[in-house]
Amino acid sequence: KQEVTQIPAALSVPEGENLVLNCSFTDSAIYNLQWFRQDPGKGLTSLLLIQSSQREQTSGRLNASLDKSSGRSTLYIAASQPGDSATYLCAGDNAGNMLTFGGGTRLMVKP
Amino acid sequence: GAGVSQSPSNKVTEKGKDVELRCDPISGHTALYWYRQSLGQGLEFLIYFQGNSAPDKSGLPSDRFSAERTGGSVSTLTIQRTQQEDSAVYLCASRRTSGGYNEQFFGPGTRLTVL
Fold this sequence. Notes:
The complex is a heterodimer. Chain A is mainly beta. Chain A has no helices and eleven strands. At the A-B interface, strand 4, strand 5 and strand 10 of A face strand 4, strand 5, strand 8 and strand 9 of B.
């Protein structure tokens, strides 16, 4: 059974810092990995999807990598802004089925 | 374009009552998922519909939970004889399955409170 862990659970940084969020998973047979953002009281916004054949994806100031052999994914946020404050969730699936989520990292970017 | 929509956004009910939660997926998305997000359990999978195939119900926590999807589009999640531990945010997601794997898109959720 796939288990997904995110470290740290919470992170507070000053505006402008580059930061890395970590996600680890137990089953290297993971097919795809998806990173989401969740604002308080809201649903999930998809940020990046890394398919099993890929090693990284980039969107604006965000870069996500996937290393299946080590069971890790990272989300890199460059030049953080207060508007980046939210909970970030990673989730993996096996062969396109349901997602298994990590517990999330609560990010606070201070002005 | 319209995203995944869910209704109601909030539902307060008394213990023992039945509730129905609705999900309208993105048009053309053949896969539909229900998840539950609660304080103690995080985000957990409930049920998955793919086209005309039998749904994957492996995540449903008890037989009080059921879901259907009519005409391959709208889905309804029904919780019978609600209990206080059913209080959570229920999230629906849909995914396009043609043209290779695609990401799941989530609705805003229904916050269920069982008194």
